[in-house]
Design brief:
alpha+beta
């Protein structure tokens, strides 16, 4: 019984042991299998079945793409499209059945644009056939994988997930090992005891066979050896030879009582030693057989290849919101924008810009291309640099449209560039909306994507600020028109504003025979405002500056340069009628937080750029 118990314990760790690795799969052959869909979503639920990252295989026909993104972004991109979602692993199954993957189907659009290459994805992997990977995502946040062929063909949905079995071994392993060992010891002890009894009871070994030799022994048998052994007497007439196994005598021919006592005492110890040896042997047997709790970790297979992953660490704000971009995403997006703008600048073709540039920057850069082709005196638009990144402002609110403001300065930029990017919808790409050169002495607080305190502010919302964004942009327009306007008292003086005032005065002086009028107006609905961590706000707005030059007297003419004539579609640079020139200006202002005092309470200019966009001869 003891051996049976021990071998039972061993069996529970070997032939009857639970598998070291568990596997769940989608059942594509079942009548309940999810129908085809252009998209498959694999959520982080598959990784909740184990403490360590799970391994998974994905099988598809032909080529497909696996994209890693925040779950909210994947859901936003999918919209109303049909898709299958792998939500997790069902482990509560009937005896004898394997765990299964839970797949939910959502009806919707049968075809979608190819999602590969979207700015929403942190990482993208091109795959074909079957891939074997390990679940790997940034440490925080809700992440999923989006799988698609090309948006028109069914997305792969055949999948398996495997993980290390941490459910533990049978609780009977240790008890059976202990009970079996004790039973084996008890059986061996009984066997030894039976052998000793049998030896005592054997003929000629009873201890009374030579009792007549003890008549002359006055000490009552003190020279007798222990039971079961022949008596030995020291007598000169004895015919029993004295060998090395004979106890020594005391010189009188009689066995030494002291040595006899030691010999008799040693024999019970020898019996106990035999029992201890048997016990140790039994325990050693249990150890050799490997009885004891087993761990599945010891049988873990070699790691599979890593899945698409991001090394960026993301931290949520107090509302549980994560940044809308990671560092790697932003760097990739800026790199692509830089490349497209550089190509457009080289070809002087605004059509090249359209994938990554939107209005007003698209129209302003297109106007610059046209003006540069007319005259070499026109300064080319500042190049757009993706790096180094000096500051980033990105609200954590995931709602669309999404806006990101970045300060960069490349080797070809004389001053830092304030770039505003916007993503209109989940399926749209980030595009460059404005690019303005920062003015000397302009200041913005350092910030990065981990700053989740940035938030969007409506242009008419002045709460927490010394004035609303719309008021600040409109006031700047009036102040630039009229140097002594009252708004000047609320605005920090700087060299850029002074230069604009001086330029306007010089035009009037250089054209005494013409009437000059200048009117700047803010364009409602075009102001973008971000509240910064210190409570102040960065405002980017648009102004249209209309300059009208008209002859003072009838029959007089006004002269314009060749660029203005070309934009007007006129062959002559001379006109006897008024000429109206419209400049588009991008301004960036910083509005102090409410409660600021003195000069700290004044609005300051951060950046400014302009471009002549249209000219008309009236």
């Amino acid at each position: 019984m003891g051996l049976a118990a021990i071998f039972g314990a061993v069996g529970l760790q070997t032939i009857w042991a639970p598998p070291a690795t568990l596997t769940a799969a989608t059942d594509q052959s079942s009548v309940d299998a999810a129908p085809d869909a252009p998209l498959t979503v694999i959520t982080g639920g598959i990784n909740e079945v184990a403490e360590d990252p799970v391994d998974y295989t994905l099988t598809g026909d032909g080529d497909y793409t696996v994209m890693l993104g925040q779950t909210r972004d994947i859901e936003a991109w999918i919209g109303d499209a049909a898709h299958n979602t792998v939500t997790g692993v069902e482990t509560e199954v009937a005896d004898g059945q394997d765990p299964r993957l839970v797949v939910e189907h959502t009806e919707g659009e049968a075809t979608v644009p190819d999602p590969a290459g979207s700015d929403l994805w942190v990482d993208t992997q091109e795959a074909s056939g079957t891939i074997d990977q390990r679940w790997s995502v940034p440490s925080e946040g809700d992440w999923s994988l989006l799988v698609a062929a090309d948006g028109t063909e069914p997305a792969p949905a055949e999948m398996t997930v495997s993980w290390t079995n941490t459910l533990g071994d049978s609780p009977w392993i240790v008890p059976l090992a202990i009970i079996g060992g004790l039973l084996v010891l008890a059986g061996l002890g009984l066997l030894v005891w039976a052998l000793l009894i049998r030896r005592r009871s054997a003929p000629g070994n009873t201890g009374n066979h030579h009792h007549h030799h003890n008549d002359n022994n006055d000490d009552g048998g003190a020279g007798r050896t222990s039971a079961g052994s022949p008596d030995v007497r020291g007598s000169s007439a004895s015919t029993i030879p004295n060998t090395s196994t004979t106890p020594p005598t005391d010189g009188t021919g009689q066995v030494s009582r002291t040595q006899t006592s030691r010999t008799q005492a040693a024999r019970p110890h020898a019996s106990r030693a035999r029992l201890a040896g048997l016990l140790a042997g039994s325990l050693a047997l249990a150890g050799v057989l490997g009885v004891g709790p087993a761990t599945a970790q010891g049988t873990q297979s070699a790691p599979a290849s890593d899945a698409p992953q991001a090394s960026d660490e993301a931290s949520a704000d107090e509302n549980g919101q994560y940044p809308i971009l990671t560092d790697s995403q932003l760097e990739r997006i800026l790199g692509q924008i830089e490349s497209v703008v550089a190509e457009g600048d080289a070809e002087q073709d605004p059509e090249v810009l359209k994938p990554r540039v939107a209005d007003p920057q698209l129209s302003m850069r297109g106007a610059n291309y046209a003006n540069v082709q007319v005259s070499d005196d026109v300064r080319a638009a500042e190049p757009v640099a993706a790096a180094p990144i000096r500051s980033v402002l990105a609200p954590a609110d995931p709602a669309f449209p999404r806006t990101v403001t970045v300060v960069t300065q490349g080797e070809d930029n004389a001053t830092p560039q304030l770039l505003m990017l916007r993503q209109d919808s989940a399926r749209a790409q980030y595009r460059l909306v404005t690019a303005a050169s920062m003015i000397p002495a302009a200041r913005l607080p350092a910030s990065d994507l981990s700053n989740t305190e940035v938030e969007m502010v409506a242009e008419d919302d002045g709460s927490g600020l010394v004035m609303s964004p719309a008021t600040a942009v409109d006031g700047l327009a009036r102040y630039l028109n009229v140097p002594d306007h009252s708004f000047g008292d609320q605005f920090t003086n700087n060299s850029m504003v002074d230069g604009i005032h001086d330029y306007q005065a010089s035009i009037e002086e250089e054209a005494p025979d013409a009437r000059l009028s200048l009117l700047r107006e803010s364009i409602p609905g075009t102001t973008t405002t971000m509240r910064l961590a210190d409570g102040s706000a960065l405002v980017i707005g648009l102004l249209d500056a209309r300059m009208t030059i008209a002859p003072r007297e009838e029959g007089a003419t006004v002269m314009v340069d060749e660029v203005a004539a070309a934009l007007a579609g006129e062959d002559s640079t001379e006109s006897d009628s008024p000429v109206e020139m419209t400049y588009r200006e991008v301004v960036a202002l910083r509005i102090p937080a409410e409660g600021a005092t003195g000069d700290e309470a004044k609005v300051s200019m951060v950046a400014l750029t302009d471009e002549l966009q249209s000219v008309t001869y009236e």
